[in-house]
Amino acid sequence: MRHQSPSSWAAIAIGIAAVVHFALGFAIEFSVDEAHYALYAQHLALSYFDHPPLVGWIQWPIVSLTTSEGLIRLIPELLWIISCILVYAVSQAIHRFIQHRNSGYLTSTPPSANTCGLMAVLAIVAAPMPHILAIGLLPDTLLAPISLGLMLMALRWLSNDRFTISDWVITGVLLGLAGLSKYTAAFTAFALLFVFLSSPRKPWITKLGFWLAALIALVFIAPVLYWNWANDWISFKYQIAHGGGGQWLWRKLGAFLGIQVAVFGPLLILGALIFLKGCIHGIKFSLLALLGFFFIPFIIFASLSGGGGLPHWTTPAWFCLAPFAGIGLAKAWTHQRRVLIRILFTLQLALCCIGFGYVLSGGISSATVKSNPIADLFGWKLAGQKAAELAKATNTAGIAVQNWTLGSRAAWYASPLPVFVLDQRQDQFDLWFGTLPRGANILLINWSGMSFSPPVGSGTAFERCEALESLEVVRFGQILSKFDFSLCSNWQGL
User: Where are the beta strands (DSSP E) in 315-422?
Assistant: First the structure.
């Protein structure tokens, strides 16, 4: 580290990770969610069943030009780089804020602002989960840089205790973009409001700029509100049910917390604890309110995790914690407490590299394909091409699958054929392709990783299903999965 400045090392770390993301982006096929959001871009709308529209809108220019997974994945890669740059900038801003307001922080050789930024970036680079969102575009990939941008605006407010009109406009735009990214952006908005409320005086509430920012944010999310109003508020109903999950169990909460440590790494936690222990004495409460950008969404997701949840939902929150962790790690590094930091950083990087290799290899197959989650990332392109050929040869009405998670890749790789999901659950496919008409003949795809019996029965489902072909997906000599294609006739409904 003596031969390069901290900012240079941060740029090098981001660059190396970006090259790895770029290579992986061309090496694997779309995941379920990636294909689903790419279909958003193919079917532009004011909003969608399960998410606001920005994740589709932002892909539309490139999806309209190419279907290459690697090129489309340049979007999440760019968003990840922006997020890392913002982590660096927010770390510096918090460091300077503390220096100007806490004389105790200046004793015993404080770290430089650049060192704080470097440590924050390294903590993100060594965390496994952000790499997944850097390769595959999810709403959380969008929300991470927007949340960091709002943190910067909050710091600007704390530093000056006032905003110019342009500051309010930027804040309103960021809030609007957050609302267009994901419904849980409301938690980020609460965190920003918490910072404003933490000041003893509340002059902002009477300012024209504040209400202008609120109006701008409302204008941005107006398409989402209008679309939901026109569609019986189906997105809000779905998200409430989805977030609530099933029966609340303590073991699910424990599993959630354990997975969070594994996929985001103990380095971020260690840095945050060091910051809280050694850097908060004498700091204004309003600065500590910035930690709400992490704690508000994290605590809400953790409380809901007892009923079910996904580990990547907290990613924007961890990005917002990274600047504080960077300051804590830099303080420990400056005071020659480096062994534990080096060990954790090395272990986390090793885990990331093992994960990259595991994905490229196709995973480890066993007697049941379900035990190999990586098998889901290979074979869908060939299956889509085969399905399109068979559908044309048999003159069917389209493609059918028996679970919505199978529909995204089928619809993307066999585009523009319609895909019908044969269940009684309402989803985005019903809005895109409608319901399968009675009497229709269809090409049914069955994937070994999520296998179903053909829906054949007297007076219900299909009259008959005839097996046509099978397709085995082989990578490095091992069979990852198998696709079965059947011609099903005379649909009678479920």
Answer: 399-401, 419-421
